[in-house]
Backbone:
């Protein structure tokens, strides 16, 4: 089996080494990625798109980062398990300070899970300006649960003509209408304009694994391959029982693998479809949705099969992850603790419309949450020390949590939990204080049957809730919406998992503390860098527009 990045990087063989060294020199570049707009972007080694990282389970990947930007940066390996390695997870001011401009830092990833992942910037939403790439972890040859002959990778992303900072200015400016006018992005497949996607070569009788990775941060992509049967075998790095479907709607940050068996004849060629869409943006011909196609070629001399009837069949089946089952048969965990988060957008007394989780709009602490957990002794078990705006929840090591997220709004939310996966156990209609449009009034309750599918990014549909279950680790695990705009305006929270265990088992390299000191960032104390519950120095937390400003919590 070989992995092909089916665009401009040619052939990638699975790495055989136990130590894989990758060098990233991150810098700005001026580039036209979609054929329509020349703009500043973020590159690696002077290139964009960034080549995927490919390794094998059991390997250790050393990612040497040089920050050539004019601001700090961090890197998050999305979906990788970080057992006893939470300090390498990457979200700025959660598990580390940023890498200062001109500095170097090495991330060390001990690859304990296999599958389709990606890697991206996790400070100032640099992901949106190009700092993102696929990260593929292959099985060991004798441990593959499924047979296939070739391995194709398709990455999907949107590309805006504006830098993220410009889009955020429009969103946060209280003098502007909210929401601001919709921007319309172009779709990229494997880093280039989706209209010029390179052909996928099929040979009669062979079986192909096609990895579908959405590395974007706003638009979903609907993927279908008419004329062939798609068997889904992976979601977010977790293997599943084969699930036959006609189409897959891939939300930002989600990944799937499908097995496709080629026909026994090369009489016809075919086309796959990748439709970029955002349901909350009104349709506009030529702007959204955008339909991209790519060729599946058996024989250069064969005609293309007419597949229009495929999309018109009444029983067209879209993938639904609640119907998938984990291949290892792990039953639903029995929860020992229940948590509830209500998400949405509200007007705050700053004059801004901000996102929230349980009415708390997220803001970063002055001390990375991991360093607070390591330095506060027994008080690390008290969620208050992590600050009023981190929405921190402290979990005991090993307890099983059922988390319900309620989203009473006419837009979906792709929610990602760092560090580990969770089980998808239930979807249903949201508890909504607002009138629900007629088309969303009959949303059914759907529960997992058998072994619930595990993944790290849930997509909560419009006017719906979702229930997931997971076992708390000893880690600091960020949870946030993977629409970058939503994460930037407050739809985030932090799980402080087993901080008492962390204090006994984790040793953070001195160079990580030194990065903080270079930037004047404290590395001990509560969210404000003080002792106990003294939050002097933290800015006042915004309050809902119809409530007084609560300010920081008072000293206890």
Residues:
């Amino acid at each position: 089996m070989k992995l092909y990045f089916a665009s401009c990087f040619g052939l990638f063989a699975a790495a055989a080494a136990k130590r894989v060294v990758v060098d990233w020199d991150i810098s700005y570049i001026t580039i036209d990625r979609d054929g329509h707009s020349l703009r500043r972007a973020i590159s690696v080694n002077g290139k964009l798109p960034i080549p995927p990282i490919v390794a094998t389970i059991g390997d250790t990947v050393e990612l040497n980062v040089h920050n050539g930007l004019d601001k700090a940066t961090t890197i998050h390996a999305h979906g990788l398990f970080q057992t006893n390695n939470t300090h390498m997870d990457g979200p700025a001011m959660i598990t580390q300070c940023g890498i200062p401009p001109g500095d170097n830092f090495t991330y060390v990833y001990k690859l304990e899970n296999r599958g389709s992942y990606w890697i991206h910037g996790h400070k100032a939403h640099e992901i949106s300006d190009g700092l993102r790439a696929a990260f593929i972890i292959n099985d060991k040859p004798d441990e593959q649960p499924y047979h296939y002959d070739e391995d194709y990778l398709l990455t999907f992303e949107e590309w805006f003509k504006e830098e993220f900072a410009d889009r955020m200015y429009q969103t946060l400016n209280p003098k502007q209408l909210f929401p601001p006018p919709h921007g319309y992005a172009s779709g990229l497949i494997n880093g280039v304009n989706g209209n010029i996607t390179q052909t996928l070569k099929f040979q009669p009788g062979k079986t192909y694994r096609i990895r579908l990775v959405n590395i974007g941060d706003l638009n979903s992509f609907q993927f279908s391959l008419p004329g062939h049967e798609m068997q889904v075998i992976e979601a977010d790095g977790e293997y599943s029982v084969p699930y036959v479907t006609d189409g897959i709607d891939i939300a930002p940050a989600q990944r799937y693998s499908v097995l496709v068996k080629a026909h026994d004849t090369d009489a016809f060629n075919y086309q796959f479809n990748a439709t970029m869409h955002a349901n909350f943006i009104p349709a506009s011909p030529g702007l959204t949705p955008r339909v991209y196609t790519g060729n599946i070629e058996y024989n250069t001399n064969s005609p293309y099969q007419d597949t229009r009837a495929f999309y018109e069949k009444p029983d067209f089946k879209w993938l639904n992850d609640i119907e998938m089952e984990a291949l290892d048969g792990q039953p639903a965990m029995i929860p020992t603790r229940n948590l509830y988060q209500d998400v949405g957008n509200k007007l705050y007394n700053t004059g801004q419309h901000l996102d929230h989780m349980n009415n708390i709009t997220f803001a970063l602490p002055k001390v990375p949450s991991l360093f607070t957990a390591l330095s506060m002794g027994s008080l690390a078990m008290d969620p208050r020390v992590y600050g009023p705006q981190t929405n921190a929840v402290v979990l005991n090591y090993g307890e099983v949590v059922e988390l319900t997220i309620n989203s009473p709004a006419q837009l979906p939310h792709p929610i990602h939990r760092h560090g580990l996966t969770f089980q998808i156990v239930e979807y249903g209609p949201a508890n909504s204080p607002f009138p629900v449009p007629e088309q969303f009034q009959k949303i059914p309750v759907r529960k997992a049957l058998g072994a619930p599918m595990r993944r790290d990014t849930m997509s909560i549909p419009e006017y719906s809730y979702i229930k997931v279950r997971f076992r708390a680790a000893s880690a600091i695990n960020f949870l946030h919406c993977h629409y970058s705009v939503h994460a930037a305006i407050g739809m985030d929270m932090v799980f402080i998992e087993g901080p008492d265990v962390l204090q006994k088992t984790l040793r953070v390299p001195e160079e990580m503390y030194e990065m903080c000191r270079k930037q004047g960032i404290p590395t001990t104390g509560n969210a404000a860098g003080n002792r106990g519950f003294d939050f002097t120095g933290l800015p006042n937390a915004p309050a809902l527009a119809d409530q007084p400003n609560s300010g920081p919590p008072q000293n206890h």
